[in-house]
UniProtKB/TrEMBL annotation, chains A, B:
NCBIfam families: ilvE_II (TIGR01123), PRK13357.1 (NF009897). It comes from Psychroserpens luteus. The keyword Transferase applies. It catalyses: L-leucine + 2-oxoglutarate = 4-methyl-2-oxopentanoate + L-glutamate; L-valine + 2-oxoglutarate = 3-methyl-2-oxobutanoate + L-glutamate; L-isoleucine + 2-oxoglutarate = (S)-3-methyl-2-oxopentanoate + L-glutamate. This is Branched-chain-amino-acid aminotransferase. Its EC number is 2.6.1.42. Belongs to the class-IV pyridoxal-phosphate-dependent aminotransferase family. Keywords: Amino-acid biosynthesis, Aminotransferase, Branched-chain amino acid biosynthesis, Pyridoxal phosphate, Transferase. Pathway: Amino-acid biosynthesis; L-isoleucine biosynthesis; L-isoleucine from 2-oxobutanoate: step 4/4; Amino-acid biosynthesis; L-valine biosynthesis; L-valine from pyruvate: step 4/4; Amino-acid biosynthesis; L-leucine biosynthesis; L-leucine from 3-methyl-2-oxobutanoate: step 4/4.
């Protein structure tokens, strides 16, 4: 826990709740927000008093640096509720550590740990009615930080805002997805910011992804910018490949996000006696494995989707379909294990659950 | 000129001007804004009525996609005033075309040409008292576009805002600068967004630049992310090298911004009978040229600074100092020629000046 920052959270409760207007069976991901939000400003070299206030729009100067120079980072987390009303987070310290790594890479000040956890747990207690129990339901949590200084010089901001907003969610992806393997466009450079959850990393993927979508693919699997021969990640998901009975996923690097779901699945594979190799993986290896029938599964892994099984992929104008495996797939085994841990329905031998009290 | 968009600019004038509070001799770049701003929203697949209104803060939802996914692009332009009160832009069509290229790469809608030029010229007529005559004075213009949709799904926004804000400026860089040549960090990837004026490109440079600044360098010259052997650009400036009597600058690519100042200087060099080669240039070539005394000049070129002469550079822990050349330097010749054209003090044989009427 951080030290110089004393706990001094200000709370202003919403007068009425919007929850009665929400149709929890028909949620559009990321468009509905709870009654409260967490907000903390950085001014004059110090994080100011953190606050929880009713969710509301905020006033921004048109010259705020976030609009011009993209100093913005975020995290994605989820809160789960069990049938007894207990509220749980999943490895929140990982997200806390990562947003500060992202901040450091974007020349933004790191956020104090006690502010983060006090803000997050207080917010969840206030808005816990928004968390629906049951597998597939969650409250998606979006901590983020933006540069607020009113100045259009191309330099780091003097002031920042750290916020947490919350949006009730069902599963992010419906069903399976088909992916296009990148041959021309790239997501990140060696020595760049690909490992960070930097806002600009996402906008950069939208256009190539829209081209893939026109061809019938929902996502792009990015390859290394130098040679387009090594598989990296899918932009909002890390990617796992199963060849015969071995899972393979790319090592993290300065180009690849250190996904919390990714690292949890590597451990869960071990817990389930599934061999998992973390090593560079060539596109040619999965093409060959698909041709000779040893490529059994590909799936994406991320907080929003947990696991997204991939139905097939296109590479160099050829489509490769994955076999149907069904309930015995590694993706099903690992996803169920993961969801059961997250929802307090399975033993948590790695100590990942964090009960919100 | 665009067609489907009829001119329908709404103007709301500021009741009073802030100009009397401005000390034009002591301007801090990008912190003072004129009385008005241009604003146009994109909703339901259409650009709505463009408006000029008093400069003011705006209301933004915390979930606005620009904060989370970095869909934001901008331009930098300047307006100049001659001693007769004439107001001039410099190749504004280049900036207009480029912001639309940036928009396309970030999956943002292109902005109509007649909206842009009507908005810009009307804004300049309203705020022309903010443009001071004289070399070195200008009104810096910042067209930009941001994603405004209130939704945190990682996908292109449905709504956008295009704005132009204006800030009176003196010369951007004071004196000469020393630069560090990048050996580890990178600005952009092949197949990425380095050629676009995407907000996220700038935030990504701040941390490596801050490390350079700690070593006494004001800027970084970026190299290719693959090998760090080819010189690219300086992030806010393209870069020119003079070896013997020849100027050399890197070709534009998907990693390097197609700078308006850069392309104008290439033409001005020709107009001044200075040989200018556009070709890949290795770090080793300028190191060698520095050692054997043939490296005469390095300078940055961009709208903000016009030309920034570089005093020396560090590469692999060795500092290389450039010789002092003085008024006969190519940077002086070209900068003076450029400023004189911009300020309506020299013949404009290339037809670059655009008088605002």
């Amino acid at each position: 826990m951080s030290n110089k920052y004393t706990s001094n959270l200000h709370i202003e409760k919403a007068k009425t709740s919007k929850i009665k207007d929400v149709d929890f069976d028909n949620l559009n991901f990321g468009r509905t927000f709870t009654d409260h939000m967490f907000i903390c400003d950085y001014v004059n070299g110090e994080w100011q008093q953190p606050k929880i206030i009713p969710y509301q729009a905020m006033s921004m100067d048109p010259s705020a640096r976030v609009f011009h120079y993209g100093q913005a980072v975020f995290e994605g987390m989820k809160a789960y509720k069990d049938d007894d009303g207990g509220v749980f987070l999943f490895r929140p310290k990982e997200n806390f550590n990562r947003i500060n790594k992202s901040c450091a890479r974007l020349a933004m000040p790191e956020f104090p740990e006690n502010y983060f956890f006090e803000g997050l747990t207080t917010l969840l207690n206030l808005d816990k009615d928004w968390i629906q129990p049951g597998i597939g339901n969650s409250l998606y949590l979006r901590p983020f930080a933006i540069a607020t200084d009113s100045a259009i010089a191309a330099a780091p901001s003097d002031s920042y805002r750290f916020m947490i907003i919350c949006s009730p969610a069902k599963a992010y992806y419906k069903g399976t997805v088909k992916v296009l393997i990148a041959e021309e466009f790239s997501r990140s450079a060696n020595g760049g910011v690909g490992f960070a959850k930097a806002a600009g990393n996402y906008a950069a993927q939208f256009y190539p992804t829209s081209l893939a979508q026109k061809k019938g693919y929902q996502q792009v699997i990015w390859t290394d910018a130098d040679t387009h021969t090594f598989l990296e990640e899918a932009g909002t998901m890390n990617v796992f490949f199963r060849i015969n009975d071995t899972l393979i996923t790319a090592p993290i690097s300065d180009r690849i996000l250190d996904g919390v779901t990714r690292k949890s699945l590597i451990q869960l594979a071990k817990d389930n006696n599934i061999e998992c190799e973390v090593r560079p993986i060539k596109v040619s290896e999965i093409v060959e494995a698909s041709k000779n029938g040893t490529l059994k599964e590909i799936f994406g892994a991320g907080t929003a989707a947990v696991i997204s099984p991939i139905e097939g992929f296109e590479y160099k104008e050829t489509y490769y379909e994955l076999p149907e495996i069904g309930d015995h797939s590694y993706s099903s085994i690992l996803k169920n294990n993961m969801l059961n841990i997250q929802h307090n329905l399975a033993e948590d031998k790695n100590g990942w659950r964090f009960e919100v009290k």
